[in-house]
Amino acid sequence: MSKKGILAAMALFTLCARAAAQSPILPPPDSVSLEKLGLMNSFPPVGDQIVNNENRGKYPQMRWVLQHTREVVPTRNIRRGNSPVSELPAAPRDFDGLVFEDDKGQKITVAEWQKNTYTDGLIVLHKGRVVYERYSNQMKAETPHLLFSVTKSFTGLLAAQLIHEGKIDANSVVSKYVPELAESAWGDMTVQQVLDMTGAVRFREVYTDPTSEIFPYLYASNLLPVPTGYAGPKTIYEFVKTLKKEGEHGAGFVYRTVHSEVLGWIVSRVTGKHFADLLSERVWSRLGMQEDAYVMVDAVGTPLQGAGLNASLRDLARFGEMLRRGGEFNGQRVFDRSVIDELRKGGDREKFKASGMSFRPGYSYHNQWWILHNTDGAFEASGVHGQMIHINPAAEMVVVKLSSHPVAGAGLTQALTLRAWDALAKAVRTLDK
């Protein structure tokens, strides 16, 4: 990667990092739609139409990449198997014109909310029925979309299930399962501290500082191209072994993607299986998914278990419905009910405050999931640029939102998102009256 490319990447990440502190000037959604941009749509593409390894992290080219990840980076398939596709019965309602009050006190419709937050796909299930489904920005029902940190929640569920099965001891130190990490920050960290991200590790995500640890992680995981002359770690596991302890384990929640990569290493070490094969065996084939999924991998095939999963909207809705039903779907027990019940309890809300995420008021983080602690018992998976799986048990509702927002962090949009969840929950509650 050229110096110019590195500076461009830093500029993009700087915009993302500042989002929580100030409101950046965003491009009008219509001006950066894939229909308008015409990226990669000629044979062959030419000039500004081309998306490649040099510009895949820039905006608006990233909008195309989120629906075409495997065309620009290495991936591994997650097979749905040969079982019949499970039914998602439809009971459509037109929520486009549903009006609610946004976080600024202004009236907004569900359709406007989707457009203003650069939504690519949105689906709402009520009691397992599809009541609302919309696609934009060239996305289709069969399109796999990059989920970023929603991936963490899949990794966390697999780990929690293995704990339930007695294959992992949540109170054991990580080095029991991965001795290679004995001299790292995880050497004396427990598995549960990894799951809840309360382990102390020096990992700075300062996108304006090229010496911070986020950059070698981005290179090692293939989220950014490795620059010419770079001599640091070139794989995920090489990188995490270099990170040292900083502070006291268990003192507070600090969101760090590297915890999810270590958790994934534990899961693979215990099962002897690649993340893609484990998801195929334990989730995709059992849920009767409609499409295969896939996961990004590093230079030696290690999956990005903190950020690399790609899946379709409807299949994610099936996954969410399974969680709403306590781990059962398609006539199969996918996760033990106690695993889901434990997840829904949430983590320590006081420790969560250490994160500084005031835009998630009342939340906690547990087993790689975000718990709202609201009266409906809602919980969710979340990824940068607007990826969400939201489960509201009391309203019997599942919402999946896949987006390509210019700003990575949720701080800019979370207050509005919470208003939208409430509006949709209120709407679905009226459907049986």
Uncertain residue segments: 1-8, 10-21
Beta content comes to 5-15%
* Outline: globular
Radius of gyration: 21 Å
- The portion of residues assigned to helices is 25-40%
By secondary-structure content and strand pairing, the structural class works out as alpha+beta
Give a written overview of the molecule.
There is one protein chain. With 433 residues, this protein is α+β, with helices and mostly antiparallel strands. Helix content is 31%, strand content 14%. The protein contains 14 helices and 15 strands. The chain has a 7-stranded antiparallel beta sheet, sandwiched between helices. Strand 4 and strand 5 form a beta hairpin. Helix 5 crosses helix 9. The longest helix has 16 residues. The protein is globular and about 55 Å long. The N terminus is likely disordered.
